[in-house]
Amino acid sequence: MSRTSDLLLTATAPLIWGSSYIVATELLPNLDPLTVSVLRALPAGLLLLCLVRQVPKGAWIWKIAVLGGLNFALFWSLLFFAAYRLPGGVAALLGALQPFVVIFAARFLLATPIRLLSLLAVAIGAAGVALLVLSPTTSLDIWGVIAGIAGSASMALGTVLSRKWQPPVSALTFTAWQLTAGGLLLLPFAVLSPIDWAGFSPTNALGIAYLGLIGAALTYLIWLRGIQILQPSAVSILGILSPFSATLLGWVFLQETLSGAQSLGMVVILGSVLLGQYALRQKETLTPLKEAAQNTPNQPFAGGAG
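^ thats the sequence. predicted structure below, dont judge the formating
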């Protein structure tokens, strides 16, 4: 695939993540954040593990635990906590800070140069998200703000480390490992949640199935594949397409109004994504990582198919 095709495919992940807001509010209003996070990650991860039949061994056990914690356990918990404590717009704006962290983390962990044009693109994107989601009556909760910033930093660091630590397995296996690790790390805390399981409805099951199979397994497979073959900075800025998608879906399916400022914000977001990719436009050579991704790395590893 060409770089443009890789980018377009990777962009579908945050576009699908935008639908999580509707699913959570419409299908899962009675479930707490930790329960949703566990039910989203662990069943999907175990299902993928059954498909790939590979488990990590040696040093990859702790590395996958770190990645699962950063990309899923910490990120999802903090994301949902922020969403419950803050207006959705503020939570989305804090999420737009993630590309900033990725740019600087990639500089220190991957020796990737910092491009001023990339920083400008991220700043413009954050401004676009602000236009899209903020209102004059927006209120702030300090713990929600802290959770939102910490969540963005968690996934940003997980994004960079997912590029730095590349096991010789397929993206599907890498996704299975991280999802399972994230779900297992959350499990001890989720059992303490005060959820009334008697009230768990078929509607809840539908919402969890969508978030797990589509919003986690499929999208993170696409996302991690993108990290594997593209620069983390090129991938991370695509994340601001999530509030773009959420707003658009709310307008289409929930009959939410779309103001002039929001329309401008959507245009600014798309422009920032294009500018961010232009900043990284130099032609990439085919790295061993990309060759591995294109050559279907299905060789037995770390215990094989057992």
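The first helix runs from residue 3 to 17.
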